[in-house]
Amino acid sequence: MRQIFICEVGPRDGLQNAHHLMPTEAKKAWIASMATAGIEEIEVGSFVPPKLIPAMADTAEIVSFALTLPNLKVVALAPNVKGFERAVVSGAHKVTFPVSASRAHSLANVRMTPEQMVEEVRRCVELRSQLRANTDPEIEAGVSTAFGCTMQGEVPEDDVVRLAVMLAEAGVDCVALADTVGYANPSQVRRLFAKVRKEIGGKLEAAHLHNTRGLGLANALAAYEEGVRHFDSSMGGLGGCPFAPGASGNVITEDLVFMFESMGVPTGIDLDKLMEARKLMVAAIPEEPVYGHMALAGVPKGFRAAV
Amino acid sequence: MRQIFICEVGPRDGLQNAHHLMPTEAKKAWIASMATAGIEEIEVGSFVPPKLIPAMADTAEIVSFALTLPNLKVVALAPNVKGFERAVVSGAHKVTFPVSASRAHSLANVRMTPEQMVEEVRRCVELRSQLRANTDPEIEAGVSTAFGCTMQGEVPEDDVVRLAVMLAEAGVDCVALADTVGYANPSQVRRLFAKVRKEIGGKLEAAHLHNTRGLGLANALAAYEEGVRHFDSSMGGLGGCPFAPGASGNVITEDLVFMFESMGVPTGIDLDKLMEARKLMVAAIPEEPVYGHMALAGVPKGFRAAV
Description:
The structure is a homodimer of 307-residue chains.
Chain A: E1 5-8, H1 10-17, H2 24-36, E2 41-46, H3 59-66, E3 73-77, H4 81-90, E4 94-100, H5 103-110, H6 114-131, E5 138-144, H7 157-170, E6 174-178, H8 186-200, E7 204-208, H9 216-225, E8 230-233, H10 253-262, H11 271-284, H12 294-297
Parallel strand pairs in A: 1-2, 1-8, 2-3, 3-4, 4-5, 5-6, 6-7, 7-8
Helix pairs in contact in A: 2-3, 2-11, 4-6, 6-7, 7-8, 8-9
């Protein structure tokens, strides 16, 4: 029934960039409320050094809690082998790696070149088969700055395609294309997803879009029309953009859900319950800026969710 | 070279709904700066009774000034024969009529049923050929609430198609479809434009979209993909939405221009100069809420306008 698969990344991508720390218990309540609203996949945290990102220090505890929620795929980010090992121990269902297509961004973000990062991911794929954990986590590579980079500017599409191919060959289960800094436009989204799909087929899965320049939903529409069915988004566009004060962060979950539902494309998510979850989030970090039109305008009179 | 034709409606749709009055001289400077930025069509005011809408009381003077600007098509709204006569006297190049597809909205807005409003427009078309003015103004009918109505809820698509056909038969030069209250979704936009075009062909021209629920650009993209090349928009989403405090009004000119330019589709509009015009607008009504992502985030590094 569900035709769109949304992975809520607010607890990771949002909180990681937020100005305020959300207490662990509030995170749990928020994540539970989003699962209750019908979100079936949540990126709940990141296994990075707590000293680097204090907001992610409780990730193991959050993963552990999230695993108790029914029908929820629990995702954690890992930037390297060390983070992957912690993610496997935590029991996360899926681990996602940021692999930047921009050399400058890659060095700044993970202190490795894109090629070195691919090798890091390859080691994790190999490690997975050796670890004999209770559950082998799914491994995703998110190609970040795939549509442009604030440091490098333009990122050649061929670089993105080559990186996606290397990652597929390294054995990841799925690849996402990420517009990390909100540079993408709808034509580019269509073109790049088509190019990458031509090379790696069904391993190309999610669109991770940001709304920095207001094109988040238009880009999501373009991706949908190009066959994409998996989308990352964050509630309230949480986290904003460090380079553009006042601009929202990820594409906004509530608005994305509304767009698809209003088009008659079911997301499996209940908008009313999603708004309840948003209230929990806002109450937990009341001074953090949040975004989104649905929270202001509500659904149209006579609106019916898609079935 | 220009592939997208944008009609800036901020001085009319925006200021009509704004909380603050913009002084006449500031309006002139703002309109001139937008024309300088390359906007070739501006809806500068509305010939409604000044007592009803004080913000539009200076429309004749504004039209007169705008006619002195080179290469600018000057548009004025008229709600009836009386307004049309004033518009013709003013010398406006184009007169646009709001013809609501929702019976309830039509009665509330112009105190006429949709059918009575079509007759009013027909009288204006006939009047135009009798008036022998210096220039015969182009006549547009904007089918408002074409995608839904806050009073009536759903507006049947057949009602919109029938109304568009009646207006075409009444002799208008062009028909626009307006999402007056921001209810439209991309699928509906495609479907309705296709249906109406099938009946009235090239007389179907502009998409007048609002951004109340954040879908403004996604809907514009859908309309573009359906062949629409004329768009109404307002700088800064000016005017907001009376039913949703904090939500923007029309789709935002700056963001719309950026979307098309980044897609490689030229609008003929200079984004830097557009931002200068925005500064004039903000300075003239500094306490009025304005919206838009481009003003916060700027263009991407290495951005090139379309040619």
